Amino acid sequence: MRVRDVADGDPLLARVYDDLLVPSFPADEMETLEWLRTRLAEGTAVVTAAVEADGTPVAAAVGEWDPGSRVLLLSYLTVRPGLRSKGLGSLLLEEVAGAWQERFRPLLTLAEVEHPLAHKADRAYGDPAARLRFYARHGARALDLPYFQPALRPGAGRVHGMLLLVLARAAGGGGREEGTVAPGPVRAFVEDYLLSEGEAEPDGAVRRLREGLARPGGIRLLPLDPPEALPLSTPDGI
């Protein structure tokens, strides 16, 4: 087993996408392979895979770099069914905490994950509650935001009931109040992300999210347990 980065033009990229990513995430949560290739070519994405001796990818992590906000998003982390809970996810998180930090020098490293109260466990897509426990073991905390994943492209839907986790932050990334994150980078990241939906008039969910971002003292960091205490976005923003 070895871990390596996957570049644009590498034949392994299509195998990672088709064999690992597509079966592991609902369609509305998935970017296209063409989008990923473009971002890799631009240097604003990173793909790291765990590969068996015969070249078969068995786990992968995909990151998106937003240079304007200096936020790095762990978009996808997946392990082939049957090999989960065997340390491969932790192995890839070591890359996120190490090589990815050296490469991008982000102010914040975030991850978007499904809220266990909004998404059920699924054989293909995994168990949101178990996923949250995994990130908790690695020290992640949730931002106190009613977060949703914006629609990624025309025809795709928003994904409500998501959490935005903080995996790492650079020195000085805290807010003015203890136990918070400075709102500026998060707000810039979210606003860039919302551009994928075009110039539509903000609805209740967007307004509620922006209210959460407009906290001058900082955005609170919350423990991941219990999930019932974590913020939950809804389509109507209530």
Explain what this protein looks like in three dimensions.
The structure is a single chain. The protein has a single domain, classed as Gcn5-related N-acetyltransferase (GNAT) (Aminopeptidase, 3-Layer(aba) Sandwich), CATH 3.40.630.30. Helix content is about 30%, strand content about 25%. It is built from seven helices and nine strands; from the N terminus they run βααβββααβαβββααβ. It has helices spanning about 10-25, 35-40, 90-95, 100-105, 130-135, 185-195, 205-215; strands at about 1-5, 45-50, 55-65, 70-80, 110-115, 140-145, 160-170, 180, 220. It has a nine-stranded mixed beta sheet, with helices on both faces. A hairpin with a 4-residue loop joins strand 3 and strand 4. The radius of gyration is 17 Å and the shape is globular. The model has no long low-confidence stretch (mean pLDDT about 95).
SSE blueprint:
Blueprint: E1 2-5, H1 11-24, H2 33-42, E2 45-51, E3 57-66, E4 71-79, H3 88-97, H4 99-104, E5 108-114, H5 128-137, E6 141-143, E7 162-169, E8 180-181, H6 183-194, H7 204-213, E9 219-222
Parallel strand pairs: 4-5
Antiparallel strand pairs: 1-2, 2-3, 3-4, 5-7, 6-7, 6-9, 8-9
CATH architecture name: 3-Layer(aba) Sandwich
- Count up the domains: 1
Supply Rg.
Answer: 17 Å
Taken as a percent bin, the fraction of beta residues is 15-25%
- Mean pLDDT, rounded to whole units? 94
Secondary structure: number of strands: 9
CATH superfamily: Gcn5-related N-acetyltransferase (GNAT)
**Count of helical stretches:** 7
